[in-house]
Amino acid sequence: MIGENIEIVRNNIRKACERVGRDSSDVTLIAVSKTMPYEMIEEAYMFGQRHFGENKPQELRDKNCMSDKKDIQWHMIGNLQKNKIKYVVGTACMIHSIDTYDLAREVSDYALLHGEVCDVLLEVNIANEATKNGFTEKELMTQLVGLSNLKGIRIKGLMCVAPITDNAESNRGYFRHMKEMLVDINSQNIDNVFMDHLSMGMTDDYEVAVEEGATLVRVGTGIFGRRNYNI
Ligand SMILES: *Cc1c(COP(=O)(O)O)cnc(C)c1O
């Protein structure tokens, strides 16, 4: 089932790329394995999946410890508290969820202390939802220079979690705006800031996100099935 699902999602990504004239090799599928047992990750691995997303620092660390697959790339996609930075820096290939300057500075400091530079994305609260984390557009624009001066992080792009909806089209405008922000930021020629990545799109809206320029899509349910949070 997991193999079939991965094939379906990859195909949908290819088709979305074709519709807008993008090269599908520019889009990376991240299989969001949060709450799923490690065996399911191994199954996905057998079908060629290498990028996995986790939203809890300890879970990411534990699954990495369990794994003998050295070419798995772990993405930290969930809310990150400062005291848990230690679980992900050096283990995750990228932190998608940098949502305040303070967190960025703490990650940078920790990374520098351990001789690392950590790849990160800046999370944008694209629909200004009270329940969501992330920089507002205004905060992002005013804090960008400060963020770019942090030596222990490399800012690789932007990430958003779009509103929950059963109509993917209703998120198209948000995804389009994310791309516009990326282009705008790159045109400002800020030292050390050139961003390639847009992490956006989940099970319900990843095809629209790809049409609008996503380079990293985060699909959980569409690959592993529904999550059970009561176990
Ligand atoms: C859980 C999660 C996903 C995957 O959601 P699905 O709807 O299951 O595809 C993507 N991004 C983030 C940040 C998540 O927490």
Provide the descriptors you would attach to this structure in a database record.
alpha/beta; eight-stranded parallel sheet; globular; 40% helix; single chain; binds pyridoxal-5'-phosphate; 231 residues; 9 helices
Explain what this protein looks like in three dimensions.
This protein is of the alpha/beta class and 231 residues long. Helix content is 40%, strand content 17%. It has helices spanning 2-20, 38-46, 57-66, 85-88, 101-113, 137-148, 172-187, 206-211, 221-224; strands at 28-32, 51-54, 73-76, 94-98, 118-124, 153-160, 197-199, 216-219. The protein has an eight-stranded parallel sheet with strand order 7-6-5-4-3-2-1-8. Helix 3 links the parallel strand 2 and strand 3. The protein binds pyridoxal-5'-phosphate. Residues 32, 34, 55, 77-78, 161, 202-203, 218-222 line the site of pyridoxal-5'-phosphate (PLP).
